[in-house]
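Chapter summary example: a protein plus calcium ion.
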Amino acid sequence: MAHLLIVEDDELLRDALGSLLGQAGHQVSMAPDGESALAELADGRFEGVVLDLGLPRIDGLTVLQRLRVQLPTLPVLILTARDGVEDRVAGLNAGADDYLTKPFNGDELKARLQSMLRRSKLPAFGQADTSVGKDRQPLLRVDTDVPRAWLQDDMVELTQREWELLALLFRRQGQVVSREDVFAAWQSGAGEAGAMASNALEVYVHRLRRKLAHPALHIRNIRGLGYMMELGAR
Ligand code: CA
């Protein structure tokens, strides 16, 4: 599945995490402190990291900040103590993708990790506007299996038709997608049944614009031709 690095100083927990994630099909490497974690991460062979924040030698937050310089998109899930709300906020600000509070449920860890790894592999559309301070995240990612997308870190639920329309615009970003192309995609997809009103496309475009509202993301109406998705300043 994925090659993961588990960074945890508590030996019992580290071994438990190792066997849990190994049984889930992942290839697992382990590091007991921040210094060895950074040494392991230096060759960039990992696809994901489970990172405890309270670590000897170099603390988890510093590990995260340093690894972000070299590996800005490597998915990282942090583990924090129950009362570590401030740690959690600092971790997310330092670029963690998700977090779990100890003690945690093994199934939940596996599920969160799976969703994080999956998200990191989706095709990305553009880079985020740096003014929002999340410049390592792509602006938009569209799920290829399930009707949903991510606008930076926020998951956006879509209807089947919204998703099919978005996928089409996304795949052909910077090019005009004609109304006929959209209707053809809707008919071949598993879209909700029912007659399509002549203004249906406008309604769906309007909904997508509302759900994916961001100053750098545009779905333009190209008069007489169709629609085009673009990135750029307002
Ligand atoms: Ca610890």
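Key point: Residues 106-121 form the longest helix (16 residues).
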